[in-house]
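REQUEST FORM: STRUCTURE PREDICTION
Request ID: SP-0412
Submitted by: Lab K.M.
Chain count: 1
Length (residues): 107
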Amino acid sequence: MSMHESPDTLSAVDFNASPLNWAAGLGRYTRRRRVELGLTIERAAKLAGMELSQWCALESGWVPDPDDMNRIEAIAATLQIFWGDYSFLILMATCQQGPPEKDFDQP
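STATUS: Completed
RESULT:
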């Protein structure tokens, strides 16, 4: 699959859920896409330049800082999707949750 032929990014979001949980949708999509590609969590984390705990948190609903384009692009490249689609999910989750906290691995 080329980088421009993204799978349906929004398919992991349950638009009928009350209230709509973008962070959970982001986590579900990330996990489903990783599994579709046959990647282990360890391999996906390594490809994205992340710690294993960060990738696990990502699949559990942790939302990366939407301003961290290097991280977003690395995750999207690992998942073989267009970074803009993934960035959109992150932005929606961030808007729902409020301002992002410090980076996952910062105190």
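NOTES: The helical segments are 22-36, 41-48, 52-59, 69-79, 83-97.
Reviewed by: T.R.
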